[in-house]
């Protein structure tokens, strides 16, 4: 199956030349690190591109990215994976890593084959312009998640870790997430710092609990929790904040902002 772009011309430039130029603006010159996981935002590139660009500029591109994002549409299975086909955007297409995707599915009955969840979902698509900037050969495994319990996040995270451990090539897990939504800049920074500290502490339980307790409107906290469970099982020892910003710095509206954090886990 070829998954066509759903938000080209909306979240990012709709032409190949325009998108290449847009992405280039956000790429930084930085030393590359091999990482187990990242947190990267998924808003329109004019708002969150500088954060995503800072993250992808600093990581070694692996053989495969496992992309985990929140399911904003409500379509499809609760934990939906695509195990075959390719994803297309104006600057190219990326094939799905069939072998790794099938291993992941075997690790938990919660993870089900489903393309419907991905057809109109933007959270993973918006990662692709940055990935394709650095490599057209890298493979992907797309996963979308609806609201779920901490136990399910743990189960899915451990299934990812088991599959990665059983794979001989480098794999990086991308948790696609924006931070606080539609609060003041001050509130966003205050609340988002609490979630960021839990990620820096490699504490998936703490992240899940603080988001629920403080009602932090972090749309991808489930993917981030899953990524942390997987990274810890794979031996991660460090997580760092690369960049944080809010939409207010672009729009000038500091009363209703969305926060964006870029982080790496290694």
Structure description:
With 266 residues, the protein is α/β, with parallel strands linked by helices. The protein has 10 helices and 12 strands. The chain has helices spanning 16-24, 45-56, 98-106, 116-119, 128-134, 150-165, 185-200, 204-214, 221-233, 248-251; strands at residues 2-3, 37-40, 64-70, 79-81, 86-89, 92-95, 111-113, 139-145, 171-176, 181-183, 239-246, 257-265. Strand 5 (86-89) and strand 6 form a beta hairpin. Helix 6 crosses helix 9. It is globular. The chain starts with a strand and ends with a strand. The model has no long low-confidence stretch (mean pLDDT 98).
Any descriptors?
nine-stranded mixed β-sheet; three-stranded mixed β-sheet; about 40% helix; about 270 residues; 10 helices
Segments where pLDDT lies below 50 for 5+ residues?
none
Which term fits the overall shape?
Answer: globular
Give the topology string: H per helix, E per strand: EHEHEEEEHEHHEHEEHHHEHE
- What is the strand tally? 12
For the report, how would you describe the main beta sheet? 9 strands, mixed
How large is the radius of gyration? 17 Å
Question: What's the mean pLDDT score?
Answer: 98
Number of helices: 10
SS class: alpha/beta
Helical percentage: 25-40%
Residues in β-strands, percent:
15-25%
N/C terminus separation: 33 Å
